[in-house]
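Re: the 278-residue chain
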Amino acid sequence: MTDAAQRRRELGLFLKARRAQALRSDYGLPPVGRTREKGLRREEVAFLSAISVTWYTWLEQGREISPSRQVLETLARTLRLSETERAYVLSLAGYVSVPPSGTAVADVPPHVQRLLDALDPNPSFALAPDWGVEGWNRGYAALYPNIATVPSAERNLLWLVFTDPYVRSLLPDWDVTSSRFASEFRAEAGPRLGDPKISYQIEKLKDASPEFRDTWARHDILGFESRERLFHHPAVGVLRFEHHQVSPSDRPDLHIVVYTPAPGSDAAEQMQLLMKLA
């Protein structure tokens, strides 16, 4: 399947998933039957968007058609998409710039590694476009010791979250966090799903993790937001961090992820103790 065909397919599946999750009462529509409160029919979406049912059906089927930006904006309003979801739909149709290639970074640049080291003891790491973990500091290694020993082919944040039992035990809210990571990754990688390396990564995860397979099938999309994160480390108990993400202006393909102590938490002291133990 070509890259363009893969994007058309993803666009159709995404629109179908959002249509199925729409609350009929939000549109002043009665339930289907006695109990079905969710889900719009294709003809209802088409009517509300002032487009033909046939054309909308072709769009969901991934046919080789070229929807205008105006039509996609209308569909986004009809389906009440978030700003992140709207941008995702537009990117799949080629109306925004495609993110950098999905290939991993061979080595984190020295100046980026020095930045990570300067952030110690705050756990910090560098993510490639495919979410490969390409560099980290001592603080992150103290929080997650496996990062230094896991095979490089598996040193991918999405893979580790869904397959490493240690990571699962480290995250007291694993169900929420893993689902959010998958949604954030889809938002970033959607326009590149035709890339063989990205496709292989997704299929490998589907085979390895039933939870990922179920989460991925929902077609959820979320943009990154700085937020509080909890980690339960066996040596120091629960750590409360704020989760931040930035990109160097000279290396926009890299994301620098930094965990800083949450206000009012003991995370700074806990990290100092972890560093000594490590």
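The chain has a mean pLDDT of 92.
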